[in-house]
Fold:
Amino acid sequence: MEIEDLIEEFSASNFHELELRSGNRSVRLIRRSTESAPRMGALEEVTEAESAQPPSVEQSIKDTTYVISAQRVGFFFPEVKPGDRIFSGNLVGQVKAMNINHEIRSAIDGEVESICVESGAGVAFGDPLLKLVEE
Amino acid sequence: MSTEQSDSPKVLVANRGEIALRILRACKELDLETVAVYSTADRNSPHVNMANEAVCIGPADSKGSYLNVQNIIAAAEITGANLIHPGYGFLAESADFVEVLRECKIGFVGPDSHVISKMGNKSEARRMMKASGVPVVPGSEGVTPSAREGLKVAHECGFPVMIKAVAGGGGKGMRMAESESEFSSLFQIASAEAAAAFGNGDLYVEKYVEEPRHIEVQVLADHHGNVIHLGERNCSIQRRHQKLIEEAPSPCIPKELRDQICEAAVQAARSLGYKNAGTVEFLVDKNNQFYFMEMNTRLQVEHPVTEMITGVDIVKEQLKIAQGGVLAIQQEDVEFRGHSIEFRVNAEDPECGFIPSPGKIDQLMYPGGPGIRIDSMVSAGDEILPFYDSMIAKLIIHDKSRDEAIRRSIRALEEFQLVGVKSTIPLHLQIVQSDTFRKGYFTTRFLDETMSL
Structure:
């Protein structure tokens, strides 16, 4: 099954969380718990930028910037570069740990604004990996 | 495996709180590079700053962080750490974790996984200890199929006996039989109760340990077959099987008994091919018979009392052993000096069944002066988080004699200022001032029997 189909099926399901492993690849889908979240079935690695800060005009302009942060510790390998157009479900990078590659896929359509860490660098839980501008 | 692998050891401390600090301190004194791991709730904890490097491994909930094997091993991989100290709790006694570390070629400060797994299984541990000549509580091997069989066992080990549910816990399906006449009916009652509570009515019968005292022995074993003990600790002051006060040496153990128990612990460790620091726990009954209870295959919370009376830094020894070092201390080098008592200061309300009392610490002033050691990572203004255990500090007292140590304890507990959360300090004061504690003969039922809670 393609990842896009998987997300669609997941969004339509009653599941809150889904993890699939095949060989040395794995993908995990988590439904956002907040009611106000704009999208169901977002990939685990996608979090909104600085959502804890009080909203301001500047930030509401920047509302379309998404930061994908690491949900796993490991070595990060981006699969995209700044300026790349991506679609929801596209592979944007991998985090490698204990010889397993964990895919990171975008949950939005947009453009890669920047890559936050060098390819092959170690990342901790919560570290920003890349920034996307939503379209 | 890692980007910056080298021969010089780099230690990842897979824990939080006071024990993470304790381990980091030992590493610093040994000039070892260190890596701390932390959850998002512990971002500003002292252990994060004390280490050379720190890696966030997950959310506040320990399942996603301090118990997250993948992220902890990945943290070792990205920092090039080649040795992991687990502290106590969390993954310290997970045979699976130790096995994965072995596969990943990362060293572990502790014994081999198969030893952890054997000692983690009650009946297996009992069987192994019995086979190596260490006394265990007399009783049936495995399930007692009928009251008639049970009675045979009871006669062999002598009344009173305990009838216990194999699947048991919390006192359900448990009865004490004092004589033959009541045995059969109590056996039936216990079986029915166990079946109702656990869906399994299987029982076993063992000798009732009268006036049980919890005596445990600290052992150290290197990878070259050397095993020594560092004497015993008395940990009979407990609530719900959790220790509150520990002391060394034990006030209620004559010298010959001490020697026998310590020798049995060394024998136990030797027969297991044990490596690193471990604790063999025994129950001692009113006739000074001792029985193996369990072995803790890790560093214990109460290890400081042993350090205070022996002068041995147990954590440093653990780190040296894990790097393949030969034990520099031999049994005859171990000297015992004075008396030490440890008080666990927990954010709990002893008057309400020891329920946790998390919250903000408004004021905190630790006692000081001679013979006082505080192992803690809490300071004024800190929040005691509901996610983790409720221990605020360990207050460890040392003095020349037990009497003097008790006086020093009272002085220190009175000096200890803690405002904002309920704590065990008032209870500790009540205990050390009680006649029973001062006399030194008390059982594991001390708290229930003596203190008015």
User: Anything to note?
Assistant: DSSP finds two helices and eleven strands in chain A. Chain A has one domain: 3-134. The two ends of chain A are 26 Å apart (CA to CA). Residues 3-134 of chain A form a domain with the OB fold (Dihydrolipoamide Acetyltransferase, E2P) fold (CATH 2.40.50.100).
